[in-house]
Amino acid sequence: MHLRNVTAEEQALLDEVDPERVPVHLAIIMDGNRRWAREQNLPGIMGHRAGVLAFREIVRTCKDLGVKVVTSYAFSLENWKRSSTEVSILMHLFEHYSRQDRKEMLANGIRFQIIGNFDELPAKVKKEFERTVEATRNNTAMTLNLAVNYGARKEILNAVRALAHDAKDGKIDPDAITAEDFERHLYTAGQPDPDLLIRTSGELRISNFLLWQSAYTEFWFTPRYWPDFKRKDLLEAIVGYQSRARRFGGDDQPAKVAVHS
Predict the structure, then answer these.
(1) What's the pTM?
(2) Rounded distance between C-alpha atoms, residue 150 and residue 188, angstroms
(3) Catalytic site residue from 15, 18, 31, 195
(4) Catalytic residue among 64, 79, 158, 166
(5) What domains lie within the chain, and their CATH numbers?
(6) Phi, psi (5° rounding) for residue 258?
(7) What does the alpha-carbon distance between residue 172 and residue 160 come to, in Å, rounded to a whole number?
(8) Would you write out the chain's pLDDT as a tens digit for each of its 261 residues?
(9) Cα dist from 169 to 78, 173, 184, whole Å
(10) How far is the C-alpha of 248 from the C-alpha of 34, rounded, in Å?
(11) 94, 124, 166, 205: most buried, per Cβ within 10 A?
């Protein structure tokens, strides 16, 4: 396991990480861009741009650590309620990120996927996302799921409807439906459930994100705003995750939910 240009503090944390127990699937709720900008008397767009920089660093670190799947919550179904100006800025950032980082994803073996209601996105954003998805489809080092126009309740409803249609068409016996049948209709079909979910900005909820998939996920909450979430913070979260006993419902002593500064 090797990280580039590590500080002494990061190296101390890295020395604590067991490379055999790094989360296979890491989920992230990137929260706090606007508050970060507001507290620094900056326009909101600067918070979102800083958030993109933080995102790049964390994705690179995950790849170097051997994380196999990263699922990041970038834009929810509810985010359309924000001002048209902010939504337009976010869509432009998605378009720009997909185009600018395509070459790096290819070079580093990262497979890029969008989870969410793809068809409702602006045409230019869809075009760039489609290009990156297609260009990276055969990469195997890591999968990066970007949740855009995503809502877990909608995802679950879509899966239920798909199963209902299968049953109506006689393709499946309703009494024989299994969890595996249901999961085949989720956006994350074929991927392992998240081992660790990180949420920044101090909020202690998961906000309609991966509700089915996170049934036995370990949570790590931090008050840091997303633009301030650095490689050191990720390593701290992983060290904390590795200190927990994951029981998957097999013990009456549940793992602790941690809040760290």
Answers:
(1) 0.93
(2) 12
(3) 31
(4) 79
(5) 8-14+23-151+192-245+254-259 (3.40.1180.10)
(6) -105, 145
(7) 13
(8) 678 889 999 999 999 999 999 999 999 999 999 999 999 999 999 999 999 999 999 999 999 999 999 999 999 999 999 999 999 999 999 999 999 999 999 999 999 999 999 999 999 999 999 999 999 999 999 999 999 999 999 999 999 999 999 999 999 999 999 999 999 999 999 999 999 999 999 999 999 999 999 999 999 999 999 999 999 999 999 999 999 988 777 765 444 445 554
(9) 33, 10, 17
(10) 36
(11) 94
- Sheet of 110-115: strand order equals 110-115, 142-150, 69-76, 25-29, 196-199, 218-221, 258-259
33 labelled catalytic: no
